[in-house]
């Protein structure tokens, strides 16, 4: 191993990658050896002596005075040895996927976001999202406030962990915001399995990138579903409307089951090894649903009218909004195109029973 001769390097023009590699080999290794009190080739014996070799950042190349003067004219291209370039244009270290998580545990990232429309009088609605890093499988729920005070946020994450099969253990990751860290700690204390709580660096959005991309997909689809609902019913849904709770939740359900990744598979398929195959309707569509179980009164009808709000992630039953409240059904029938949208039933059902903060499992 040898040290760089500064006088030889000073007159050379080298590519950034070339001199970074030379510096890493020629400058960093001697520093590590010296810090460990080792001489010559004894660095190779560090592991046998119970030491793990430390890794420091690369040392900047030392340019000549002429190079510095020419570079100062334009500061082009970017040079890591130029303090002004570093201050003005240096970026964060890249976010690299960890080579191995503790004990092979799944990593689920949690974050909050908000939804609001431009409608007069509409308010900002807080939502919680959780997403598995490996599969992209996630859930979203409207909550009353950020943090663990709304038990709905804890329940929806616990449900996701159950769907993912994280009975043995899981790593819950959030940003450094107090509301998010308190939430993941509340989830950890509410489940029997091993739970490791981890925070991202402050203001480092890339570290929580999986859930942020999931949120972007959900927000985009929620806007699309809202526009389609408005076209069919001539009803503009504000974010605070009871139906918006269901629409946002359904958007996440759809993204998980129908949006394909680079490998050609959906998040649902990555978890269950098969594509999702059950039938669905348009959100808010007027349908007929069969009453569950046997009907004892043989002279009474078995079906009821309602508004299709989505399907359960657990039982896969249909959620139906009716005049009498929320109901579940295993079997539904669609109406003919002229009867598929019933604004009157929508207003009655939503106004009377579908309150905004109903727990949706």
Number of strands: 10
Residue stretches low in confidence (pLDDT < 50, at least 5 long) are: 1-40, 98-102, 351-361
Reading the helices and strands in chain order gives: HHHHEEEHEHEHHHEEEEEH
Which word captures the global form? elongated
Average pLDDT figure = 78
Number of helices: 10
Strand order of the largest sheet: 3-2-1-4-5
Task: Assign the structural class, choosing from mainly alpha, mainly beta, alpha/beta, alpha+beta, or little secondary structure.
Answer: alpha+beta
Rg, Å, rounded: 29 Å
Ends apart, CA distance between termini: 63 Å
What about the largest sheet?
Answer: 5 strands, mixed
Helix content: 25-40%
Strand content bin: 15-25%
Verbal overview:
Strand 2 (125-132) and strand 3 form a beta hairpin. This protein is α+β, with helices and mostly antiparallel strands and 361 residues long. It has 10 helices and 10 strands. 35% of the residues lie in helices and 17% in strands. The strands form 2 sheets. It has a 5-stranded mixed β-sheet with strand order 3-2-1-4-5, with helices on both faces. Strands 9-8-7-6-10 form a 5-stranded antiparallel β-sheet. It is elongated, with a radius of gyration of 29 Å.
């Amino acid at each position: 191993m040898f040290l760089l001769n500064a006088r030889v390097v000073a007159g050379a023009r080298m590519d950034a990658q070339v001199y970074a590699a030379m510096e890493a080999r020629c400058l960093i290794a001697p520093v590590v050896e010296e810090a460990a009190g080792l001489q010559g080739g004894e660095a190779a014996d560090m592991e046998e002596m119970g030491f793990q070799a430390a890794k420091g950042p690369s040392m900047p190349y030392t340019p000549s005075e002429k190079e510095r003067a020419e570079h100062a004219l334009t500061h082009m291209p970017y040079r890591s040895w130029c303090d002004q370039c570093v201050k003005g244009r240096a970026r964060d270290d890249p976010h690299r996927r960890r080579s191995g998580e503790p004990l092979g545990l799944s990593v689920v990232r949690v974050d909050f976001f908000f939804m609001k429309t431009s409608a007069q009088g509409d308010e900002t609605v807080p939502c919680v999202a959780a997403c598995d890093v490996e599969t992209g499988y996630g859930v979203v729920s409207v909550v009353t406030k950020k943090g663990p005070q709304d038990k709905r946020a804890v329940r929806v994450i616990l449900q996701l962990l159950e769907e993912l099969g994280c009975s043995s253990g899981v790593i819950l990751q959030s940003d450094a915001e107090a509301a998010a860290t308190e939430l993941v700690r509340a989830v950890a204390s509410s489940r029997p399995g091993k739970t490791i709580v981890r925070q991202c660096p402050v203001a480092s959005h890339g570290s929580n990138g999986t859930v942020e991309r999931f949120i972007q997909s959900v927000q985009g689809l929620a806007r699309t579903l809202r526009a389609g609902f408005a076209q069919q019913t001539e009803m503009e849904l504000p974010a605070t409307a009871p139906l918006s709770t269901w629409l946002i939740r359904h958007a996440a359900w759809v993204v998980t089951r129908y949006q394909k990744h680079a490998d050609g598979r959906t998040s649902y398929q990555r978890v269950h090894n098969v594509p999702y195959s059950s039938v669905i309707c348009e959100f808010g569509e007027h349908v007929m649903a069969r009453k569950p179980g046997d009907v004892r009164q043989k002279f009474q009808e078995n079906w009821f009218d309602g508004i299709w709000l989505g399907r359960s992630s657990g039982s896969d039953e249909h959620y139906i909004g009716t005049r009498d409240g929320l109901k579940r059904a295993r079997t539904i029938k669609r109406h003919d195109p002229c009867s598929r949208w019933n604004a009157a039933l929508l207003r009655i059902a939503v106004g009377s029973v579908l309150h905004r903060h109903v727990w949706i499992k």
